[in-house]
Amino acid sequence: MPEDFSLADDLLRQLMSVGEVDLLVGLSAQTPGSTIGHAVEAIEQSVRQYFVRDRVVIVNVSDGVKGEAGASEADNGNQAAKSVRSPGITSLRTIHRVSADFSNPPSAGIALRTILSAADLLRARACAVVSPATFNITPESIANLLQPIYREKFDFAAPLYTRHKFQGLLARNLLYPMSRAVFGWGIRELYSDEWGFSGRLATFCLNQNVWNEEAIHARPEAWMAISAMSSDYRCCQAFLGEKSQAAKGAGTDIVEALRQTVGTLFWCLETQPGLWLEIDKPREVPTFGPAHDLTLEPSELDRHRIFEMFRSGVTELEPVLHSILAPETHAEIKNMVSLEEGKFRYRTDVWVRTLYDFAASYHHAVIHRNHLIQALAPLYRGMTHSFLVEHADSSPAEMEAANEMLCNEFELQKPYLRERWKTKVEVKS
Amino acid sequence: MALQRDNRWYKDAVIYQLHVRTFSDSNADGIGDFAGLTQRLDYLQELGITAIWLLPFYPSPLRDDGYDIADYTSVHASYGSLEDFKTFLTAAHSRGIRVIIEMVMNHTSDQHPWFKEARSSRENPKRDWYVWSETDTKYQGVPIVFVDTESSNWAWDATSKAYYWHRFFSHQPDLNFDNPAVFEAMWEVMKFWLEMGVDGFRLDAVAFLVEREGTLCENLPETHAIIRELRKRLEISYPGTLLLAEANQWPADVRAYFGDGDEFQAAFHFPLMPRMFMAVKLEDRKPIIEILDQTPEIPDSCQWFIFLRNHDELTLEMVTDVERDYMYDEYAMDKTMRINRGIRRRLAPMMNNDRRRIELLNGLLMSMPGTPIVYYGDEIGMGDNIYLGDRNGVRTPMQWSGRLNAGFSWADPERLYAPVISNAVYGYQAVNVEAQERSDHSLLRWMKSLIQVRNAFRVFSRGTIQFLSPSNHRVLAYVREYNGETVLVVNNLSSTAQAVDLDVQRYKGYVPIEMFGRNLFPRFGGGPYVLTLGPYQFYWFQLRRL
């Protein structure tokens, strides 16, 4: 562990008082001012219903909300804690709550590192991280995350949600199929605000020399998932239910979202090539609950605006794309840009090659990596436009079939990625 | 050492519970008796206990361990004679030890002359001493206590061709307290023993004395009226006589039996006991704090009686289903160890013979608010025999020495009322009084010093309790205060060493004196007081301004 990180004395004191635990739930709210009261209530309810005998600690690494989670359930005089108790249901043990005090909201990386440190110190057997700001936490969903780790001995549990069919497009069209093809594990929600992990995975991740990497700061969970997959930890998916309204509206800044997610994905490819280059067939990921659940509300997205942003972005970034994309891919895209909106379709084979070109160029550092990720934004918009058009009336089954085809395309073209990864394409200026 | 004249003696008592049958056999018939018990009184005096609670010793067919009484004013022949009892009573009193006996008011044996007369004909004057009915449909919905053996609270009497009411076994007909003659008869019985000098009664099954249609026939106002009348008479004629309620209920429900200080002076705190066991297993103070938080205040003259183990199963009636399952899984994995809704094991085996845990639990027992009861044999860590059936596994002969029959009896071993424990760990050759008296560090010696310290400070028996809330939940800490005496008790409930910060700001400047060694610890400053405790270790500190 690098020397520049240490747990605050106050937190350390709190952890000392807790001692060894079976379960640890970390609360990581990245939204300043978000409240965690309902989350704490749901976690405690979950403990009473599903883990009544077990030693549990809730670690709050949200900023400025110590009062809500900084005392243990059974403390004398803690009326707030008592008031959330349901009649007739009680845990046998004290449900401990500790709070890490941060003057400013900690980055996701710092928050996770704090939670992992607590898990390691307390020798937690199963852990979960949840974000009260983006998720309707229920006692069942907490249990769904923890049970596979605690009872079934998995090391990593990625979440699955009920999704609106046009929600989570970045995951559906890029992150899931690409990571599945590359790393060989079909984890649908590689980037999420909720996930579960074992104590031994926590210790493993904590001891990796990555914590000062920029890619870890914003979205460390994907790195953790990929670390778990690549190091032969047992991975699974667990169905949690619906994302909150806040989450549905989130992620409008696509450039930032790409930087946080695709940036980390590419960084993982870059830092762990030995783990994926030779993998051909994806492995089945055990899933607890339904593998996917789509609702069919119509899209509220403005397709025409998305198309215009695609066209103008590609035109503006022509020289940049020229340096990133293989000539054939670039030519296909230029051809697509010239089409009228009604005739435009971003073919899946081109989309896959686009991403593989970007990944290889990230590896070869053909331009500054931040700029490279930024340049993906208009292309992603083009893909999104095509997706909205194609699936305006699709049923969940049709969408699932299409997604499976996309995944197959990524897998089919993986040799292309390998080739591009190994050989830098010289672009003629 | 004569008895102290104090009508509230029960508040300061340390009680030793025993069955005369189990303790010492003087006539080599294989059954303990009063003469044998009398011979062992020096042992009990040295142990430091101040009262003996005797299980039923009345003539009885013994179909319910003596709670089926066939004669209220005599002694079962196996245990000796009335004269033997009187000798025992006098000898106990001369050692400063009081005697509490059982009084089963709710029912008699069907072999009691009262019942024999009552069933002999419908016209018999004793007929109305019991509860009869032409049908078995009265008092529908009243729970059956012994569901394993009884299917109804009514039993058919073929002689008088009617049903009689029984809340317990069908051979234990309930007395009819709506008939004033019954109450007067019971009062005469009590006077009989009081005149002899007994110091108190444990009233068995008090909740069930009266029946009323449309109720559960439990805890009825008429029952409380009977208790109040009894207490009034005792206060007038025999002041200082203890009335101890056996009511296996939640403290809030038992509270009614204290009345305004005009009913029982004492009642068992049943729910605390399993929670002490639970807290040690869970390594968390929560169960104890929770139940004491739910325990209502009682009148100043009254007292809770607390215990770890007794002659019955470790009852799990007063716990939730989740808690009961946990207790079973942790303390009675072998289903043979379970009976009714409880666990038929002794303290030491339940603690896996871990001396530290046995000491911790006894430390809790002696420092919690209430009058502690030590079950015979637990002071030396006796084991049990779960294969003896019913609760007999915790009622085996007292282990006095490594000699024949554990020094309990000179009878042939086959003649003993029950076999002595003889396994390698808990057998009488490994665990006995004689051996432990020879060792300075035996459990028995330790128990004596524990009781000695307890007896030396009234704060334990009469003081208030205030829990501290250190962030370490493996540590249970509380302050007891009484008339200027202050004691701080700190218990590590866990199997590993613990550090704890205690908020003792209120006692800034006080010096804690460890009460067993009388060693001074560093004075309390203004900030948190840091203590470290080894596994299952506990401290009792007297806090003094020095």
Could you list some keywords that capture this structure?
heterodimer; A: 429 residues; alpha/beta; Spore Coat Polysaccharide Biosynthesis Protein SpsA, Chain A; 2 domains; nine-stranded mixed β-sheet; 19 helices; B: 546 residues; TIM Barrel; Oligo-1,6-glucosidase, domain 2; Immunoglobulin-like; eight-stranded parallel barrel; six-stranded antiparallel β-sheet; 18% strand; globular
Describe this structure in words.
- The complex is a heterodimer of chains A (429) and B (546).
- Chain A is an alpha/beta fold.
- Chain A folds into 2 domains: 9-295, Spore Coat Polysaccharide Biosynthesis Protein SpsA, Chain A, CATH 3.90.550; 303-422, no CATH class.
- In chain A, 51% of the residues lie in helices and 11% in strands.
- Chain A has 19 helices and 9 strands.
- Chain A has helices at 9-18, 37-50, 66-69, 79-83, 108-122, 139-150, 169-183, 199-206, 214-218, 220-230, 245-249, 254-271, 303-316, 318-324, 327-337, 348-364, 369-390, 396-412, 414-422, and strands at residues 23-27, 56-60, 95-99, 126-130, 156-164, 195-198, 235-242, 287-288, 293-295.
- In chain A, strands 1, 2, 3, 4, 5, 6, 7, 8 and 9 form a 9-stranded mixed β-sheet that branches.
- In chain A, α7 packs parallel to α18 (396-412), α12 (254-271) crosses α17 and α16 (348-364) packs parallel to α19.
- The longest helix of chain A is centred in the C-terminal third of the chain and has 22 residues, at 369-390.
- The radius of gyration of chain A is 22 Å and the shape is globular.
- Chain B has 546 residues and is α/β, with parallel strands linked by helices.
- Chain B has 3 domains: 9-107 and 179-455, Glycosidases (TIM Barrel); 113-165, Alpha-Beta Complex (Oligo-1,6-glucosidase, domain 2), CATH 3.90.400.10; 464-545, Immunoglobulin-like.
- Helices cover 28% and strands 18% of the residues of chain B.
- Chain B has 17 helices and 22 strands.
- Chain B has helices spanning 9-12, 20-23, 34-39, 41-47, 82-94, 113-120, 180-196, 221-237, 251-254, 272-282, 286-293, 321-331, 347-350, 355-367, 433-438, 443-456, 458-462, and strands at residues 15-18, 51-54, 98-104, 132-133, 154-157, 162-165, 200-204, 242-245, 266-268, 303-307, 314-315, 338-339, 342-343, 371-375, 464-467, 475-482, 485-492, 498-502, 510-514, 519-520, 529-533, 538-545.
- Chain B has an 8-stranded parallel β-barrel. In chain B, strands 15-16-17-22-19-20 form a 6-stranded antiparallel β-sheet. In chain B, strands 4-6-5 form a 3-stranded antiparallel β-sheet, with no helix packed on it.
- In chain B, α5 links the parallel β2 (51-54) and β3.
- The relative contact order of chain B is 0.10.
- The mean pLDDT of chain B is 96.
- The chains are: A alpha/beta (429), B alpha/beta (546).
